[in-house]
Design brief:
By secondary structure, the protein is mainly β. It is built from one helix and five strands. It has one domain: OB fold (Dihydrolipoamide Acetyltransferase, E2P). A three-stranded antiparallel beta sheet has the order 1-2-3, with no helix packed on it. A two-stranded antiparallel sheet has the order 4-5. β4 and β5 form a beta hairpin.
């Protein structure tokens, strides 16, 4: 998926074919962040897995399973961490 919007509690991702899903901050896979903007950017690609599908409320809850290595290293540099 690709990050569409950053929200206070997580990120909205585009899953294709006009389908959106939500990744809560706790499922971003990057420890100790207070704001999603500290970890991800709009348009950034991410590997995801489905945690929950609620067809009645048209919701898909996801977890990030992998960020491109360069993106994770860039976040670590900004946070002052040397190795990822």
């Amino acid at each position: 998926g690709r990050v569409l919007r950053l929200m206070d509690k997580g990120v909205v991702v585009d899953l294709g074919q006009d389908i959106e899903g939500f990744v809560p901050m706790s499922q971003l896979g990057i420890a100790d962040i207070q704001n999603p903007a500290d970890a991800v950017k709009e348009g950034q690609a991410v590997e995801l897995k489905v945690l929950e599908v609620d067809p009645i409320h048209h919701r898909i809850v996801l977890a990030a399973t992998g960020w491109p290595k360069d993106d994770v290293q860039e976040v670590a540099k900004q946070d002052g961490q040397a190795d990822v």
